[in-house]
Amino acid sequence: MDPGWPEATAVAVMDGKILSVGVTFDDLMPWLDKYPYEVDDRFKDKVIYPGFVEAHTHPVMGSLAISRPTLSHFPVRSPYGPEIPGVKTYDEAIARLKQFVADAPSPDETVLTWGYDVLAMGEDFNRKTLDAISISQPLIVWDASEHNAYANTAAIDKYDITPEKIKGVIGAGTNPDGSSNGQFLGTDAARVLLPQVIAEQMQPGAATKNLNYFGALMQQAGVTTAGDLFFGGVDMGLEQELSRTYFATDASMQRIVHVVDGFSAGKAYGAAAVDKALAMQAESNDKAMFKGVKFYADDAFVSLSMQMQWPGYVDADKYKGLFMYASKEDFVAAMRPWWNAGFPIHVHSNGSGGNQVTLDALAALQAEKPRFDHRFSFEHFGISTVAQGRRVKALGAVVSTNPYYVYERADLSIPQLGTDRASLAARMRSLVDQDIVVSLHSDTPVGIPSPLLEVWTAVNRIGFTSGKVRAPAERVDVARAMKMVTIDAAYTLGVEDKVGTIEAGKLADFAVLDDDPLAVDPMQIKDIPVVATILGGKVILTADTRHP
């Protein structure tokens, strides 16, 4: 992925870093004449790329979600066995929930399920429907967007969800008496319930098991670096401990780039939040790096709770969208101290309305204090307009987009967004043609980390359900798509000086593939096996991660 030295046949590694890259083996000789060396040619018939960079995941929250009993509409990849079939109907979801409750190890243990897809199923859960499954076993359904949750009476009581706690909270459903109706829709409402549930199920022993599950999935997909775009959002203290005891150690099969959740940092540290984050940054090492801060503009694409500009949603009475701040001024005020302190800011911005207010906020910050190379990143950039893309360029921002919005969501979203806007989800070609840096990500648990599937989607833009090409003019070529999961993803996270290319001075991180995405039929890219990953020169065979 070094455009000036694009292909090679040999790479010299010393002390975990790339010493030299040779088009031929002889190109390495100035260094090999200086140092004793060993030749490892076990991959001589394979193809090596820079280790893939998964630009936006949620390791703590995501590892818990994807390792729970699943209600996902789409098949879910497992690192330790066959793919888990998707749930196709509401009745099938009910049947699975009953089985999950029956399989619970104790009557007091919370049954936490993940992946329910209301858009595919057509029906929401609530307290009453979940009580019909169990009135005594705490039961929580966490939806595919990761922004919504549903709870039965036993769970509401267990986690002390009182009328006082949900009063005035956007998206928290209530009964006439003010008590919870079991629906927690949107980030603000989900924060009332989910953090304590997740923290309960992510104590050190369980957390390590879940993170190993997640790490195996990423290794098998060729990922060597991942962005953690919600650091502290579950439990600041717990996550700092996991960073020290797991991510920064040899236990982790990936490097991690922690991006602090701005809301959670403010809640934990108040006015000292920026200084606390700077202190974390100073503790970074090559395995666990702290870079940037994250904010939310609007809500989720998956549940169609993102904020849309006119004409909005087809069913405007049902789908209205949620903005996370009372006003643009409040949004700017939340980001201002971080901007002034020089932090790269990542904003979860999905709908055209969310993208517009994020652009306006960035323009306001730039007017107050101009910055160069600020790496302000639009995370997802789900539904956007041509004008918004041009303004991203004018303001010097980057885009990290989610190809699962094309692959899994476009077909499901057409009835509410219209064919044109749903098909244009996750624009790519129209952005890169303006020389905007665009990276790809899974936003796990929204999608399972699969850079080659992400590349396949960027190249083909085929919907999972229909098999139709969605917005073919937004397709990119394979070489560009591969940049999006290597050097451009590293740039988005601010670690392009360490990873993303096979280049002298970089960390020796590689993905070993059975074939070359540039050489195979584009329809076969997602099926190329990952033979191994190499992290700091140490080989991890995929065959060795297929068991706990």
From TrEMBL:
UniProt xrefs under Pfam families: Amidohydro_3 (PF07969)
> A Gene Ontology MF term for this entry?
hydrolase activity, acting on carbon-nitrogen (but not peptide) bonds
InterPro entries the record matches: Amidohydro_3, Metal-dep_hydrolase_composite, Metal_Hydrolase
The protein, known as = Amidohydrolase family protein
Q: Which organism is it from?
A: Hyphomicrobium album
- Domain Amidohydrolase span(s) in chain numbering: 44-540
Q: Which UniProt keywords apply?
A: Hydrolase
Superkingdom of this entry's organism?
A: Bacteria
